[in-house]
Structure formats: structure tokens, C-alpha cells
Design goal:
Number of strands: 12
Strand content: 5-15%
Strand order of the largest sheet: 10-8-9-7-4-5-6-11-12
Largest sheet: 9 strands, mixed
Radius of gyration: 32 Å
Number of helices: 15
CATH superfamily of the largest domain: Spore Coat Polysaccharide Biosynthesis Protein SpsA, Chain A
Order of helices and strands: EHEHEHHHEHEHEHEHEHEHHEHHHEE
Helix content: 40-55%
Distance between the termini: 49 Å
């Protein structure tokens, strides 16, 4: 069946993809200072009208239908005749086309005929509304070498069950174990697996960003590598995404841990939510599925002291949660501690809340009012009832100690915000990728992102 056509006199220059690729290869091989910055027309140099193209197509593929010229409106900004002058490419690069229009159409037909229905739909606009969406899984790994093979198997089983296109990106965040080697071994047998190795440990948040920057699918799932985020939950995330939700996060209704730790985590999320100037969902960690446009806005956020779950709430869009019970680590022991959890709480609160400064201002105003009131009361007592007026240094020392402690607390609180400002204005790299792992090969990366 022939498609709609514009005016039959409109002409174009048709070139086969193999010839175009050969031109790029020849340009790279022949590159020298004399041609730096030069432009080359890559084409056959043959002016082929739409009428000629239709006639060739009818002959090659035995199409009985007559072409309907003028059934498609020409673009107002386009040229009627558009074909290349490849003489410069021939003179400087020694390149010219080797595949005729007729041979190119035949080989293209053979390639299309070799595609399955699913492959054809994914590589064309056919049934695009029914095409299944693709997902990138980004896994932050630190001391998780034992868990990585299990994570890969469970993720693969989940994606195969969904019947979707996918990729799995393991980010080795400076792990001291053999995580890089384990990722390399898996990628040697599974081309859908990509590994990223950082030059040192930059933290899980930067590991997520590193993976998101290299992801290529329609959505991204963020997961910790310790298997506390069950991969099987992605099936429910995907269903919610298909319903129209842009962000689907896991909501931890229960944790398999000591009761006092669980209580502390729940308290943090509620304090964080009450302090934050954006609406933060309760008990929602980093485990989530985000649509590609949400990822785009997340990556546009320039901060270096990253707090993904806060930024996820900040960018907005349609968000919903899926309840689950968070299990204990399958291998090893947790790398968290009380001090790390306190630092984590500070990161979230100071990144998305001005409430501590507001409380400090309020405390200063109240303290000033109480000081003035106390001074007035003491003065009146000295004048009216001197016998009961407070005397001695004890009261003075207690007052000085109280206000001195308040000042130290205020300085420390302001210092936390200043420290975050310093981290941002230094402009250091957010993360450093040391190597990229694909097909079992680890390739060292240069600062410009190119391979060594």
C-alpha cells in the first residue's frame, strides 16, 4: 500500500544508511588539520522526484495501487528540490555512494521482513498507543556483591513477566568488595546489564543520579542493592504507571527490624513532613518508579547535596504510593548507624525546610521579650519591695549560661545551612565515574566522559 504523496515534482536525495555510516567512518579515518571545521554534503547527488520514487516502488514491489499525488500537504518552510553535491566529500574523503535507490529499497524490505511484529512496532510508529513502555532499573550498590546476582535474577524474572523492554544499571559506588567483578560477570552473559564504577563512595543519592543520567528507557526505577526493596513490587509500580501516575513510590508500612529503630524512622518522616515546605509522603523512601519527564526535571536540579525523595516530591506531577513490608538485609549487616541516620535526617530537613531558622527567630524574639520582662520585674522589686528582689551571682550565672547555650545552638544551626551553601558554591563534580562495564568489559572513562 502506497502512502500519501506531496506534489510529484518535489525532489529529494535518497541515501542508504550503510553509505551514510561509511561517510562518517571515512571522515574519521581521513581526519587531519586541513579539513578541521569543514562541512561535507553526504548524499548521492541524484535528484529523485516523488513521482520517480513512486514509480520505482510500484515496479520493485508489484504494487497495483496508483499513487495519489497531492494527497498530503507540503510543509510551508520546506524546499521543493533538495539534493546534495557530494563532490567535496569525494575529493577530500574519497567517499561516494555505492548503493543505488533500487538496491537500498530491496535491502530495507528484507530487513523489515526479518522483524517480528513486536520489533516492528517498537521500531516504528505502528500501534504506538499500544506499545508497552520500557523501564530502566538503577541499583545503588555498596558492599552488596552477594546480593547483586540475586537482584539481577529477580529483576529479570519481573521484567520478563511484564513482557517489557528493560535495562538494568548497577552502580558500584566505590564498594570495597568485588562488586565490580560480579557486575562484569553478569554483563558478559546479559547485554541488558550495564555497570558503572565510581572512583570512590559518593553515597547512594549520587549513585542514583549517576544511573539516571545514563538511563535510556521510558521510566526509571530506583533501588538499593541490599534487596530490602523487593523487585517484585515493580509489577505493581508498572500497573500504576500505566494508569497515568507519573511517580509511584514504595510506602514502608512496616520494617523487619528492632522496634525502636522502626519508631525512630517513623518519627523522622513525620518531623520531616511537618517541617518541609513541600508535601512529603510519609514512610516513602527512594524505592520508586518515575516517568522519563520526571527524571528530566530531577536531573535539572543542580544541587550537589542530593536528597532524592525530597526532590521527587518537589518536582511534583501525579504521585501515588504502594504499600509494602521492608525486609531485613538478605546478606551482611546494615551500614547505617545512629550517627549516619542523624546525618541523613539533617540532610533532608536542611535541604527542604526553613523551619529551624524560623523557630530560632521565634526563640530569639521570645527570649528577648522574657529578658525585658524579667528586667522590668527586678527593677520594680528593687524599688518597691527590695527585701524579696533576687540577689547574688547564681541567678546571673544561670541566665548567662542559658543565653550562651542558646547562642551556641543558634550558631550551629546557621552553620549547617552555611555548610550546605559552601558545598554548592564550590562547584566540584557531583560524582566521578571511573569505569563503564558492558558485555563483561570494564572501560576506563576520562573526565570528558570518553573512553581511554
Amino acid at each position: 500500500e502506497l502512502p500519501p504523496f506531496v506534489d510529484p515534482r518535489t525532489s529529494r536525495d535518497f541515501i542508504h544508511v550503510d553509505d551514510a555510516c561509511a561517510a562518517f567512518v571515512m571522515a574519521a579515518v581521513k581526519l587531519h588539520p586541513q579539513i578541521y571545521g569543514e562541512s561535507f554534503n553526504i548524499g548521492s547527488g541524484r535528484k529523485t522526484s516523488i513521482a520517480e520514487l513512486a514509480a520505482v516502488t510500484k515496479t520493485l514491489f508489484s504494487v497495483a495501487q496508483e499513487p495519489q499525488f497531492g494527497s498530503m500537504e507540503a510543509r510551508s518552510w520546506d524546499l521543493a528540490d533538495w539534493y546534495a553535491d557530494p563532490s567535496k566529500a569525494l575529493a577530500s574523503l574519497g567517499w561516494k555512494t555505492t548503493i543505488s535507490l533500487e538496491d537500498g529499497l530491496r535491502s530495507s524490505a528484507v530487513w523489515v521482513g526479518s522483524l517480528s511484529e513486536e520489533d516492528f512496532a517498537s521500531n516504528s510508529k505502528k500501534d504506538s498507543s499500544k506499545r508497552k513502555r520500557s523501564v530502566s532499573a538503577v541499583i545503588a550498590c555498596y558492599k552488596d556483591s552477594q546480593a547483586i546476582p540475586v537482584m539481577h535474577r529477580r529483576l529479570t524474572d519481573t521484567f520478563l513477566k511484564l513482557g517489557i523492554d528493560y535495562e538494568i544499571i548497577f552502580v558500584n559506588d566505590g564498594s570495597p568488595d568485588d562488586s565490580a567483578q560480579v557486575i562484569s560477570t553478569i554483563s558478559a552473559t546479559d547485554p541488558r546489564v550495564i555497570g558503572i564504577s565510581h572512583s570512590r563512595n559518593f553515597g547512594s543519592q549520587m549513585a542514583f543520579r549517576s544511573g539516571m543520567e545514563l538511563s535510556t528507557k521510558d521510566a526509571v526505577v530506583l533501588m538499593d542493592g541490599d534487596l530490602q526493596d523487593p523487585p517484585e513490587l515493580i509489577e505493581q509500580f508498572y500497573a500504576k504507571w500505566k494508569e497515568g501516575w507519573d511517580v509511584v513510590y514504595g510506602r514502608r508500612v512496616k520494617r523487619e527490624m528492632a522496634w525502636h529503630w522502626g519508631l525512630m524512622y517513623k518519627a523522622f518522616y513525620r518531623v520531616f513532613a511537618s517541617f518541609s515546605y513541600v508535601s512529603i509522603p510519609l514512610d516513602a523512601g527512594d524505592f520508586s518508579l518515575m516517568d522519563r519527564r520526571v527524571i528530566g526535571w530531577l536531573l535539572n536540579c543542580p544541587e550537589r547535596d542530593l536528597f532524592v525523595r525530597g526532590l521527587r516530591a518537589y518536582v511534583g506531577f501525579r504521585q501515588t504510593g504502594v504499600d509494602y513490608v521492608r525486609p531485613e538485609r538478605m546478606f551482611g549487616v546494615t551500614t547505617n548507624s545512629l550517627l549516619k541516620n542523624i546525618d541523613w535526617a539533617k540532610k533532608g530537613i536542611f535541604s527542604f525546610s526553613n523551619t529551624p531558622l524560623t523557630m530560632l527567630t521565634a526563640a530569639g524574639v521570645v527570649s528577648l521579650a522574657l529578658s525585658i520582662l524579667a528586667a522590668v520585674v527586678v527593677a520594680l522589686l528593687r524599688i518597691l519591695i527590695p527585701d524579696i528582689a533576687p540577689r547574688g551571682a547564681t541567678t546571673l550565672l544561670i541566665t548567662i549560661l542559658m543565653f550562651g547555650s542558646l547562642n551556641l545552638f543558634a550558631i550551629g544551626l546557621v552553620g549547617e545551612y552555611v555548610a550546605k551553601i559552601m558545598l554548592e558554591v564550590k562547584g566540584r563534580p557531583r560524582l566521578i565515574r571511573a569505569a563503564l562495564i558492558r558485555h563483561g568489559v570494564s572501560t576506563e572513562l576520562l573526565p570528558n566522559g570518553k573512553t581511554r
